[in-house]
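Quick one:
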Amino acid sequence: MSRALGSKAEEVAKKFLQNLGYNILAMNISYKCGEIDIIALDKKTMVFVEVKQKKDAKFSQPYEAVNFSKQKKIIKAAHMYLQKLKGQMPYCRFDVVSIIGVDENAEITHIKDAFIA
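Output:
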């Protein structure tokens, strides 16, 4: 996925999550060990969101690209982010927002607790 298309998908996911009541804290947080597309609060839960997008689902769903190796990188990056927080550690979870299409008619699938640390 090109960086421009990835950025567009992340903006679509951001708006989708905001419409669900999520408070977006940060986007595109990158460490040597991995990257987090979106960090948000769902009430009192900190949510680390991976966004995957494809033009179509002929061969696979976008969320299927979040394999074990990718999950480990996201978890490591989340640990790095959490180390910078002061005070009590929040409850956290890992979600995936899967997007099929590239326009306003894109199909969005939100998978809560897609994987665990």
